[in-house]
Amino acid sequence: MNEAQITVIGWLAQDPFFTMTANGTPFLALRVGCTPRRYDRRSGQWQDLESMFLTVNCWRSLAENVNASDMKRGEPVVVTGRLRLREYVKDGRLRFSADVEATTVGHDLSRGSAQFRRVQRGTMTEEDRQEAREFTDQWSLTADESDTDPTTPHPNGHPSPDPTDPTDAPLTTNEDHDPFTLQPQAA
């Protein structure tokens, strides 16, 4: 990989902003502020150096997970991602912005604790499983086992295949030519 990967440790400068793009892709943006500190031996004090603020962009499942984590302004975070430098003109002046396209975002656990919640995607309830079994049972009936005419519509509205239409015929492999090419089965 020939991309600049960075890890940023800082504080959320504002609450994360979550939205969906026009094509339905989840997107979340957040600002992370970092203020390096150095110990000044002459004064015996810690000195704050110049603060830096980075825009962090999160996409898809990362955006959804960060949004669900309820991160708020002022919380300590760790971000890893690809560094992107962009130029833009504002008030007639050329400016630069350092953005991070995040691959991971999390709380900085050296400054507090967090509770991990695993994301459950696409899980089926028992009711969903039972409904799927019922539909499977209905579709697995053959014309001989069914008490209906094979050309009558299925209970859920899908028509049964037309045995005289070659495009509705079951597909088999053409072993004489190419075993990976599917051909309509002769009726």
UniProtKB/TrEMBL annotation:
Ion transport among keywords: no
Biased composition (Pro residues): 152-164
Record key words, sorted: DNA-binding
Superkingdom of this protein's organism: Bacteria
Keyword DNA-binding among UniProt keywords: yes
MF-aspect GO terms: single-stranded DNA binding
CDD domains assigned to the protein according to its UniProt record, in alphabetical order: SSB_OBF
Basic and acidic residues composition bias: residue spans: 124-136
One Pfam family named in its UniProt record: SSB
GO biological process entries: DNA replication
Region (Disordered): 119-187
InterPro entries, alphabetized: NA-bd_OB-fold (IPR012340), Primosome_PriB/ssb (IPR000424), ssDNA-bd (IPR011344)
Protein name according to UniProt: Single-stranded DNA-binding protein
Organism: Thermomonospora umbrina
